[in-house]
Amino acid sequence: MPGRVKKAIGFLVSGRGSNMAAVTGEIAAGRLEAEARVVICDHPEAPALALAKNQGLPSVLIERQGYPRRQAFEEAMVRALRGHGVNLVVLAGFMRLVGPTFLSAFPGRTINIHPSLLPAFPGLEAQRQALDRGVKITGCTVHYVNEIMDGGPIIAQAAVMVEPDDTVERLSARILAQEHKLLPLAIAALDL
Ligand code: GRF
User: Fold this and answer.
1) CB 140 within 8 A of CB 113
2) What pTM does this model have?
3) 93 alpha carbon to ligand 1 midpoint, in Å?
4) Residue 81's pLDDT is what?
């Protein structure tokens, strides 16, 4: 659309990177109008780094232990993202809380995907929490990031039925399949 700023995405990842790949796949297929600019990863062994390399996507390794304080760590991430012209930050399996230094650099432009229907089951092992609690429906949520873990305003959700003899692995796989659809749709729906 004329005059409209294209979504220029920077991913923050710590692990597998399948949600990142789902988004870049939709971009490559021409179904999501956005550009993937850079991947920031805080873990040298993360499979997401190899995925980014295979896709020709620039990646930057920024490890927390390389910085004395969280502020300096976050400033390094902000510099890398700005250096690549990012205007939308997507946390996709980034295993850290982001703080005020980061959030004030990208106000209203940092989103996360979480494998539960928030506000239920924030934090780690959301799928296990859902099974342990005995809910019959769970799912995934894309939300804006604020300083509360998995606590920002909700953008989009998808529901997944829990089956009678579900395991964490099977339930996680079915939720993940929904995550891969939801995240690109939520990005498309954002009005930056
Ligand atoms: C996903 O389940 C996501 O919801 C959660 O961490 C997992 C990341 O998976 N925040 P991947 O790295 O995108 O494959």
Assistant:
1) yes
2) 0.96
3) 4
4) 98
